[in-house]
Amino acid sequence: MDDADTERDNASIVRARAGDTRAFGEIVRRHQDRVFSFILRLTGTRDEAMDLTQEVFMKAWQALPEWRSEARFSTWLLQIARNLSIDLLRRRQVIQFAPLDDELDIADTAMGPEACYATCQRDAQLARALQRIPAGQREILLLREVEDLTYTDIARTLGIRPGTVKSRLARARAALLERLGRKAGEDHG
Amino acid sequence: MADHCPRTLALSALLDGQLQPRQRRELLAHIDRCAACGERLRELETLRSRFQALPQERLGFDLGAVIEARLRVQPRPSRTARRPGMRWLLFPLSGAAALTLGLYLGSTLIRSMAGDMPAGPPMLAMAVFDPIPPGNLCPVPKSCPSGNGFR
Ligand SMILES: [Zn+2]
Questions:
Q1: Domain containing residue A118
Q2: Residues in domain RNA polymerase sigma factor 70 region 4 type (chain A) (predicted)?
Q3: In this complex, do A170 and B13 lie within 8 Å of one another by their Cβ atoms?
Q4: Per the domain annotation, does A144 fall within a domain?
């Protein structure tokens, strides 16, 4: 998001805070795909990601009076999305005693049936590898590589120290490369 | 590997522009001499470009309209953080809103009624409102363990 988007967000937030549901609807439209995309890549299941995306915006509405403009609104939304997703992943583990694996939605349905073959295969491979590393590594990679958050914003979003971001990111990258390497039958040593 | 291999930690920080100028110079000099680290850096760069090339997932419907419809039957946000008691507030919706919602929410409603999703979200509410609320909600930023240094 650029500065113009941020300004538009801020204007809509002022109206939404005063109870203007239409203004909030505009905010939702602007952010829905980004939030959904983040949650889907974090949780791996489309239906649950759809539910959670709605939940994120309902929570955001409730917490709107508490939002302060020092925090970028889009980052604040990701923080709510992250909290709800991790909660879901915890419940899922309790229920299933094991992480989802082959029943993941993300890889197969993400790109739609049309177009791209090699590219889609490659994207799907990355999406699958992502699902096979621990959630704590997955979330930090998504925040850095997809959402392009700074270390400071990542630390804030995850509630960890900025110093921890550096080491956790390095471990996450190493783990993902190893997964991808295993998949491709290469040895990354 | 050559003399002192910094491995992924330093290479990852280099990729993110997180090294001090001197550390950066030394690491780049090392990479010039060390094929393993050079290869590792290329892998990290490739990984980054693969992430950046991922297409954004699309929700595929107008969630704004759905949320607006839900909010019409809900009080406006207030300063006191409320605990949402109901997951789905479907029924006080009127015609147009119900139509908008119908297609998408059908499956959700069925799941809710079938009970495979927990109904009230006390855990979700806890995750968001306690102990650290979603945004910069800490009344006294300094008292918040995650609040220091955020912009
Ligand atoms: Zn080396």
A1: 100-183
A2: 125-176
A3: yes
A4: yes
Give pLDDT tens digits for A109-164: 444 555 567 788 888 999 999 999 999 999 999 999 999 999 999 999 999 999 99
Enclosing H/E stretch for B12: helix B7-15
Closest CA to B116 of A27, A171, A91: A91
A122 is a domain residue: yes
Which of A60, A92, A124 is a domain's end point? A92
Q: Are residues A176 and A132 in the same domain?
A: yes
Nearest residue of chain A to residue B147 (CA atoms): A156
**Which residues in chain B are contacts of A141 at CB distance < 8 A?**
51
The Cα–Cα gap between A62 and B28 comes to 49
The alpha carbon of A143 and the centre of ligand 1 are apart by a number of angstroms equal to 28
Q: For chain A, what percent of residues have pLDDT higher than 70? A: 84
A37/B137 CB distance under 8 A: no
Closest alpha carbon to B44 in B15, B13, B23: B15
Residues of A within 8 A of B107 (CB-CB) are 47
The amino acid at A95: I
Minimum Cα–Cα distance from A85: chain B residue? B124
- Is the pTM of the predicted complex or chain greater than 0.90? no
Residue A179 lies in a domain: yes
Q: Exposure pattern of B110-125 as b/e (b: 16+ CB <10 Å)?
A: eebeeeebeeebeebb
Residues A66 and A12 in one domain: yes
User: Is B52 within 8 Å of A25 when comparing Cβ atoms?
Assistant: no
The count of structural domains within chain A is 2
DSSP assignment, residue A144?
A: I
Residue A72 lies in a domain: yes
Q: Which domain CATH number covers A86?
A: 1.10.1740.10
B35 alpha carbon to ligand 1 midpoint, in Å?
A: 7
